[in-house]
Design a protein that fits this description.
Elements: E1 3-5, E2 13-19, E3 23-29, H1 34-49, E4 54-61, H2 65-68, H3 70-82, E5 86-90, H4 101-112
Parallel strand pairs: 3-4, 4-5
Antiparallel strand pairs: 1-2, 2-3
Helix pairs in contact: 1-3
Length: 128
């Protein structure tokens, strides 16, 4: 059953639809002012507390939403992954993900897992 919150004329709107116990779709439309960002953040927090495992955030019609909601989306992604779920932000710009230091450590740990010494072999530089 969708829940629709429409703030003042001209401001963004947020629609939330729960599908069963594990899935939720959050649709964001229009320009997001500070109040709309707070509403979207609270609704994402409710979905998280409810224990959903899969969240789709549709921002196709709200190009500023991914940046405005990043403070809520990044920790939500981490918590969803911890319980075997995922977060999909549909319509986010195709900019490359900026890895955090934690991402780098995770990649390094994965790359060295199973290596006998855990240290990469020295490389030989061939001079022409």
């Amino acid at each position: 059953m969708p829940t629709h919150l429409a703030p003042a004329e001209g401001a963004g709107s947020v629609t939330v639809a729960f599908h069963g116990d594990d899935d939720v779709v959050v649709s964001v439309r229009g320009a997001l002012d500070a109040a709309a960002v707070r509403r979207a953040t609270r609704l994402l927090a409710v979905a998280d507390v409810e224990g959903v495992r899969h969240v789709i955030v549709d921002v196709v019609d709200a190009p500023d939403a991914p940046a405005a909601l990043r403070g809520a989306l990044d920790p939500l992604r981490t918590r969803l992954q911890a319980r075997g779920g995922w977060l999909l932000v549909e319509g986010a710009p195709g900019t490359p993900h900026e890895p955090s230091l934690l991402d780098v450590f995770a990649v390094y740990a994965e790359a060295t897992r199973g290596a006998a010494t855990g240290v990469p072999a020295p490389r030989t530089v061939l001079a022409g």
